[in-house]
Fold this sequence. Notes:
The complex is a heterodimer. By secondary structure, chain A is α/β, with parallel strands linked by helices.
Amino acid sequence: MTVAASISDRVVIDIRDVSIRYGDMVVLQPVTLQVFAGTIHGVIGPAGSGKTSLLRSINKLSVELDDATVSGRIEIDGNDVLALRGDALAALRRKVGIVFATPQPLPRTVFENVAFAPRMAGVRDEGALRATVERALRSAQLWDEVADRLDLMASQLSGGQQQRLCIARALALNPSVLLLDEPCSALDPITTRRIEDTLVALTPDVTVLLVTNNIRQAERIATRTSFILMGELVETAPTSRLFAEPRDSRTRDYLAGRFG
Amino acid sequence: MTMPRLLAPRSAQRVAMTLMWAATAATVGLLLFIIGFVLRRGASTLSWEFLFSSPRHSGALGGILPTVVSTIYVSAAAVLVAAPLGVAAAIYLAEYTKESRLTRVIRSGTDALAGIPSIIFGLFGFAFFVTALGMGWSILSGGLTLGLMILPTVIRTSEEALRAVPRHYRDVAQSLGASKWQSIRSVVLPAAAPGVMTGVVLGIGRAVSETAAVIFTAGVALKMPFSPFDSARTMSVHFYTLTMEGISDDMAYGTASVLVVTILLINIGAYTIMNRLTRKYR
């Protein structure tokens, strides 16, 4: 067995029988899904199918901020996420970055946005912070555009730059997992392409779970892809296989643009 | 189906604009009239000496320095009580509780507290701080009473300000490994600061200008206070005493002028700071 094969055989995100509801409203039926190390895993499906709820549950954000009830088991590198709270949960979130659908810079400078997570984690050394910020901005392919204006308010960057800033911010603590919730939904095709290149460049160091409304995006960069429809995981397969010969008729219809 | 028109859209627009302009003009006009009226009557008395010397003959002669100092002390004590308590309560209500019967009770209780006449706060302060706790007529009693009086204003404005902070700031901060308190302290509170400041400024305004609640709790001693346990006479109480006891109308309006200008300066100062803060966080 080659080294590359052994890397992508390792399960990083292990989702078992996870269902999600808000009060009495069930948004996700029990889902079982494995995401392999160092790959990009795409999740496609129409709006309102439960993709975002699933993504926000992987770092327990949905439980803490949206009052969701999540049952089942979610493991990241063997950690039982749903059982974590307090400091242990904060520690996990430093290893699991998330980027939201619309660029959401904090009301601070470019530098302070990227330095936010390290500062919260207790890093005080300004030299170390500068090095971290530069590395993260380079990984997000934003450094060349903002190197001489790190003191600019983040809100003054363009939409695409803001979204790459949010990716850089999520990368500041060297996470092993990056969760992305339709990261390009508000962006033009060229910027979208840049962000896709960025994500591909992050693998295999980072495992990426990419929720997207754009099925072509999954086709372009995801190694494996899952299709979720109305709270149900319909099928998961290597992306080329899913697009070439979907097993389920609903997947076929969705990919053919017959609904959603 | 469309409603029959009373006015052509263009005329309706013009009428509405005129009405709104008139309402604005009336508000500003009234403010200027009151300030002008007080300053005109007080102008003959106003001088640096009036501001910086002690009163003689119960305030018929001399200046008002002790009342200026007392006003600052009593108001500062009130803010020191109300700001931390109020902001903490607002954080609890906005960030740590879910909407429930309890929060509704707390909220309507706060609103009811805001509607209680200040003289009732004065009587309560007299019975509780001055008498029961034995603090006597003092800056401390007055400050605590005023603090309780402006607390509801601070709580409600701060709570609104916290709720107005975009939800995603909390998402982002906590998703980056900040604890709930870290996210509140480093992201939510700074963003809410201008609104919280507004509440505190409104509170300071009320505290500085309050008469009834202070006269019962801080007393009327017309001398320079040196400790929190000294009785003190604020500018509003001084104005009230000078007028009601017929000591000197000129001195009364002189005091009123200083009071009005002080409140104006506090407002202008606070809004300037607020604008700076908002620009920084925009």
